[in-house]
Design brief:
mainly beta, five-stranded mixed sheet, four-stranded antiparallel sheet, about 50% strand
Length: about 425
């Protein structure tokens, strides 16, 4: 890649094993480039990340002389030296449905029945949507201002935890739809920016704007989290704590702060808040804006203002590797139920799916027009839900039309969709 202003080389994309004969930019996304090689394969590149996102192999005896994207950007046509042309599908994902009625959505979660998704709105409402019909089912009313965080507690008495800029955290019964508890600690000087709960509902944690993590312990099974919070201090008070999550075993809370660190808090030490901090995760070059834990408790993922993601092993709280991420701040991150992939989203509006085995981006979803506020994956991995400040909730197939299963680790290798008749030159 060359800079046309000073004619300097910006980057070199490497990976082909022979002469590169042709290049084509996607008409729908100028950051996607396809390159054809003499060795019979072509590659698709992400020019934002400068990495290969897919390798498409033809017969190695065939020299690819030319290629181009189709007008929709979903297919690539290749031509060979023996008058054979093929059509290939490249990794483009379109949403199954876009819910434009989901006005001002700020948070999303999957209902425990896996048949509904739940969204929080900028007006203080909580809406429940049917995944199959995309119909609005019901609304939960009670917050006065924006609901920007949702967390589901599964079980026979399924509950929903909601955090709002009105300074309240509410506990809802997903069985009756009633609010069964309100957490409002007057000692907190800032409202919660994000909330999470342990899988058994025993604890609720909140990320606060003054650099504090607040934790409440459930006093009964009825959603009673009354009393003052345990205040976990350790992050710089100059910066807000942007994100919190609980590990799936309920042992730890992970927090991400504007001070460029994430911290690990041991809930078993909650009676001694000063001893709760087990580890400080350092290495990001900006504020840590998103965190999530893998379902198998083997790793956690942190997202940063610089767009990068880091994956940490929980056995020694060490960074295993860094993913290049996005062009802007990471706004949300979640792990897939099989613990093999991570879905991340950005303030720029794009969503990426990452394979943790190969560290490659296996899908890029670019339909949102503004910041993506939340992402969530159904337990059977059949669908991904995303909500955005562009006032839409999108439901995506996972992935494409490949039997409802995630593709094998990438870069992907795809067969052609069709073989065209010989072309007479």
């Amino acid at each position: 890649m060359w800079d046309l202003c000073d004619f300097g080389c910006l980057h070199v994309l490497e990976g082909h094993s022979g002469a590169v004969n042709a290049l084509s930019l996607s008409p729908k996304n100028s950051s996607r480039l396809a390159s054809a090689c003499r060795d019979g394969c072509f590659k698709v590149w992400d020019l934002d990340l400068f990495e290969c996102t897919g390798t498409h192999k033809d017969d190695p005896r065939l020299h690819l002389n030319d290629l181009c994207f189709t007008a929709g950007g979903q297919n690539v046509i290749t031509a060979t030296h023996i008058n054979v042309a093929r059509i290939w599908r490249v990794s483009v994902v379109n949403p199954v449905v876009t819910l434009t009625d989901a006005d001002d959505t700020r948070a999303v979660a999957v209902h425990p029945d896996q048949k509904h998704v739940i969204t929080g709105t900028a007006h203080g409402g909580i809406d429940v949507w049917d995944v199959q019909t995309a119909a609005h089912v019901t609304s939960l009313e009670g917050h006065a201002t924006a609901v920007h965080s949702l967390c589901v507690v599964p079980g026979p008495d399924s509950q929903l935890i909601s955090g709002s800029s009105d300074g309240q955290i509410k506990v809802w019964s997903l069985v009756s739809g009633a609010c069964i508890g309100t957490v409002a600690d007057p000692t907190l000087s800032h409202p919660a920016l994000q909330v999470c709960a342990t899988a058994d509902g025993a604890h609720i944690a909140a990320a606060c704007g003054d650099g504090v993590v607040a934790v409440w312990r459930q006093r009964s099974n009825g959603g009673d989290y009354g009393g003052a919070a345990a205040l976990l201090e350790g992050h710089s008070s100059t910066f807000p704590v942007y994100a919190v999550c609980c590990t799936r075993d309920g042992r730890f809370v992970i927090s991400g702060s504007g001070d460029s660190t994430a911290k690990v808090w041991d809930l078993q030490q909650l009676s001694h808040p000063s001893a709760c901090c087990t580890a400080t995760l350092e290495g990001h070059s900006g504020g840590v804006t998103a965190v999530c834990s893998s379902p198998d408790n083997s790793s956690i993922v942190t997202g940063c203002e610089d767009g990068r993601l880091k994956v940490w092993a929980t056995d020694a709280w060490r960074c295993m590797f860094t993913l290049p991420g996005h062009r802007s701040d990471v706004s949300a991150v979640t792990a897939t139920p099989d613990a093999r992939r991570v879905v991340s989203a950005s303030m720029h509006g794009d969503i990426k799916v990452w394979c943790l085995d190969t560290r490659f981006c296996t899908a890029a979803l670019n339909e949102h027009k503004q910041q993506v506020c939340g992402v969530a994956v159904l337990e059977d991995q059949s669908m991904l839900a995303s909500c955005s400040e562009d006032d839409t909730l999108k439901l995506w197939p996972v992935p494409l039309v490949l039997g409802g299963k995630w593709r094998s680790p990438g870069p992907e290798v795809y067969p052609p969709l069709a073989l065209l008749d010989a072309i007479k030159r």
